[in-house]
Amino acid sequence: MNVASESFAVDVRDLQVRRGTHRALVDVNVKVGRGSITGLLGPSGCGKTTLMRSIVGTQIVESGSVTVLGKPAGSADLRRRVGYVTQAPSVYLDLSVTENVSYFAALYGRRGSAVADTIAAVGLTDHARNAASALSGGQLGRLSLACSLVGDPELLVLDEPTVGLDPVLRAELWEHFRTLAARGTTLLVSSHVMDEADHCDELVLLRDGRLIAQLTPGELRDRTGEPSLENAFLRLIRTSTGA
Question: CA separation (Å) from 92 to 54, 89, 110, 133, 134?
Answer without folding.
Answer: 25, 9, 19, 8, 12
